[in-house]
Design goal:
The protein is 0% helix and 55% strand. It is mostly beta strands and 257 residues long. The radius of gyration is 18 Å and the shape is globular.
């Protein structure tokens, strides 16, 4: 059986595997934790809910008609984005589906949340902004020329990375595009917002691309402060923590910057 169908639980102190969670019948592509529950989204079209303490499966959330690609928590609900072009909203306590958000004409690949809104990025090249309480679409953000692959949120801005090789910066208050960051020569696949990288006190947006590079963008000037080479294949995931950035690549390695 394909190991990507399983969830592995690790002890952070001993770094040993505690348990393997089985049940999904296709690759698991999204994880999110809220209120003592772990949610896992899979290409099998379901979202499974696991108790964080007992690690038992509490429920299988069904409704999507395509692979589940992304999850985000906001306003007491878990939002799931799917290749079926919809975003479903699940009450974290009752696990009931409160709504199916429609409007995208392509697969939903990315979700992020600010204090009041949820943003969904799609293959249709747009980003939709949803009120986290009313679940109404507030605005559709346009500008990218190819599918939107990744989203990230900072203090005052939302960032979108696209197959069109650019990163767009959106003001969280006005929902207007205030910058287009250019430099990558292939699709932008990963974004992370961090502090203290690459210099103490600085606030940076970090991007990873199919061009194998990691770029650091100064959020005070929106200029590329540093381009890092070292990977030999696409940079697919990024995480920023305690002044470091970690990059995971299709070359099988993790870069520490």
């Amino acid at each position: 059986m394909d190991s990507s169908m399983h969830l592995q639980v690790w002890d952070l102190n001993t770094l040993t595997r505690v348990k393997t969670l089985s049940g999904h019948t296709d690759a698991v592509r999204a994880l999110a934790v809220s209120q003592g529950r772990l949610f896992s989204g899979s290409y099998d079209g379901t979202v499974r809910v696991w108790d964080e303490d007992s690690l038992q499966c509490l429920e299988i959330l069904k409704g999507h008609t395509g692979p589940v690609r992304t999850l985000v928590y906001a306003g007491g609900c878990m939002f799931s984005g799917s290749y079926d072009k919809t975003v479903r909203v699940w009450d974290v306590q009752t696990l009931e589906c409160k709504a199916a958000l429609t409007g995208h004409t392509g697969a939903v690949r990315a979700l992020v949340a600010s204090q009041d809104c949820v943003f969904s990025g799609s293959d249709d090249t747009t980003i939709k902004v949803w009120d986290a309480q009313t679940l109404k679409c507030i605005k559709t953000l346009e500008g990218h020329e190819d599918n939107v692959r990744v989203l990230a949120v900072g203090e005052t801005s939302m960032f979108s990375g696209s197959w069109d090789k650019t990163i767009r910066v959106w003001d969280l208050r006005t929902l207007e595009c205030v910058r287009v960051l250019e430099g990558h020569t292939e699709a932008v696949l990963a974004l992370a917002v961090g502090e203290g990288v690459p210099t103490p006190g600085s606030k940076m947006l970090v991007s990873g691309s199919y061009d194998t590079t990691v770029r650091f963008w100064d959020l005070s000037t929106f200029r590329c402060a540093r381009k890092c080479d070292g990977h030999f294949d696409a940079v697919r995931v990024l995480a920023a923590h305690n002044g470091h950035v970690f990059s995971g690549s299709y070359d099988g390695t993790i870069g520490v910057w």
